[in-house]
Amino acid sequence: MADAIxxxxxxxxxxxxxDLLFQVVFHGRMRGTGLFxxxxxxxxxxxxxxxxxxxxxxxxxxANAADQVVIGKR
Length: 74
Description:
Elements: H1 2-6, H2 10-28, H3 38-52, H4 65-72
C-alpha cells in the first residue's frame, strides 16, 4: 500500500484498499465465535482514530483549517 501511495498509483491503491476491506469483512464474519462482531471493531477503530486525531470527535465545530490545527493540539 505504501508503494502505491509513494508512486501515486491510485488504481494500485484502490486494489490494496480493497484487499484491506476484504480482511476486515472476512474477520468480521468470524463473529460466530461469539468473541466480537462488526460493531465491536467499528467502535474500537473509531475510538483509536479519535484518540490519535482528537479533531475527528469535534469535526462539526471546525470552521476552517486554522481551527482544525487548534483543535488537533488539544
